[in-house]
Amino acid sequence: MSLADQIAPLLPHLRRYARALTGNQKRGDAYVRSLLEAIVADDSIIDRGLEPRVGLYKAFYGIWSTADLDVAKPEEAAGAENIVSQRLSRMTPINRQALLLTAMEGFSNKETAQILQVDDAEISPLIDAALKEIDNQIATNVLIIEDEPIISMDLEQIVRDLGHDVMATVVTRDEAVNAIATRKPGLVLADIQLADGSSGIDAVKDIFARFSVPVIFITAYPERLLTGERPEPTFLITKPFLQSTVKAAIGQALFFNAEKSEAA
What we know:
Layout: H1 3-7, H2 11-22, H3 25-41, H4 52-66, H5 80-89, H6 94-104, H7 109-116, H8 123-135, E1 141-145, H9 149-161, E2 165-170, H10 173-179, E3 187-191, H11 200-208, E4 215-219, E5 235-238, H12 243-263
């Protein structure tokens, strides 16, 4: 099998990781494009001694660590000092990278060490540090848009275990709009397909029309929303999910939201 054939089915998940890593679809996809351009120029950047997915993420880590891709709007990047501060503010620390690779992408600790190019023994402490940061995040109120009762109960429990409040749990777009009529959520967890045939994406668009708020989408078909060809979610969880995956996603979404709040 050619290298291109090996890489192609891995790209949707790499886009998911890159978006979570940067907290932005546009920046995440830009890093993935930069990696693909680098592979075309020199495919030796892929470590053939590793399993293909591990080798791809390791190569991505090399691009992420060294490439300074400024894809901000011109008015957001006025002056060299501001560009540098923006770059630093959107860097995900290595402990959070370790958590995302294990909890969201499903890599083992050994594979994560290979990707991050550190000793195996360093991964567990990095993950523990990331989890401690998440546990210490300021509590917020969470709107859950999910029509499957068991899943919504699981999400409610995870949210509360993290110390956050469940503002409301709704099952349709209209209920979501009603829920935000008098209160702004600090975070939204949204299923894609809702009970009455409405869309969680449309519900979130309605929310965005009133507020700027971090959103994590939940779907059984992530590949449909990870093409890089149109406006798509930054944070995406695949059904069925693990509690650790949801926890990592919530922590990362609120991490970037806190950065925006401090910069405001």
